[in-house]
Design goal:
Layout: E1 3-5, H1 11-21, E2 26-28, H2 35-38, E3 41-42, E4 44-46, H3 51-64, H4 68-74, E5 76-79, E6 83-87, E7 92-96, E8 101-103, E9 110-112, E10 115-120, E11 127-129, E12 132-136, E13 139-143, E14 150-154, E15 159-161, E16 164-167, E17 169-178, H5 183-201, H6 206-223
Helix pairs in contact: 5-6
Length: about 230
């Protein structure tokens, strides 16, 4: 399931973050890429141990933890700390699939990357190109969202970042291990939860809503791995 979610952080907050990132100590992005991915990757990243990266990551995580659409869509078990990247003119990241397993920094705890996520921090008008292009069952889908919006998509997806033609593109990215491993099952649960919320808002019969809620939670019990 590929889903865009608005306003994970406000546009004003995103602009303030970009202002701080413009003065950050950026490193070559190849330093965090595997051997194959490094041949495709031309960008800059902020060291995960950089205090600024940690502050921004904590802010994003705090917003995610109380965003109902993100929780419903991902059903997170573990979330890796967000990382920050920068694409300047002619920088790009060619077709690749994210590593299936990653380690939480400074620990020996492994996380399965069921879901990839990108939070767009730059206003789309501030750069040309730089689309995140995700290949799914419907073909190649370019994504370029307003500042503060997030896109989540299966970690199994082949994807790339198109070259930036002008300006600078700043973003945060991270991975989620979901309680529900299979993407198709997560999509069904998301649609069911959305229907329950809509029926509740419309004042539908309470007993029927309780029955549907029971189906939702029993499906989670059946499919969840923790």
């Amino acid at each position: 399931m590929l889903l865009s979610i608005p306003d994970i952080i406000s546009a004003d907050a995103a602009r303030q973050i970009v202002g701080r990132l413009e003065k950050a100590d950026w490193k070559d992005g190849k330093g965090t890429a595997g051997h194959l991915a490094a041949t495709q990757k031309r960008n800059a990243q902020l060291d995960i141990a950089d205090p600024l990266a940690q502050q921004i990551g904590d802010l994003i995580l705090s917003q995610l933890s109380r965003h109902p659409t993100f929780i419903s869509a991902t059903l997170p078990l573990r979330i890796l700390p967000p990382m920050l990247n920068r694409y300047a003119a002619k920088e790009t990241y060619g077709d690749h699939i994210d590593n299936s397993i990653r380690t939480i920094p400074a620990t020996q705890e492994y996380v399965r990357t069921d879901i990839s996520a990108t939070v767009f921090l730059s206003d789309p008008q501030d750069y040309e190109g730089g689309e995140l292009v995700i290949n799914d069952t419907y073909g190649s889908r370019p994504v370029k969202l307003p500042a503060g919006h997030i896109v989540v998509y299966p970690g199994t997806s082949l994807h790339r970042v198109n070259p930036v033609a002008k300006g600078v593109r700043y973003a945060a990215f991270f991975w989620v291990q979901s309680m529900i491993r299979e993407d198709a099952q997560r999509a069904l649960l998301y649609e069911l939860d959305a229907a329950i919320q809509s029926l509740t808002a419309k004042g539908a019969d309470r007993e029927e809503i309780i029955r549907l809620s029971g189906v939702y939670h029993n499906l989670i019990r059946t499919w969840a791995s923790t």
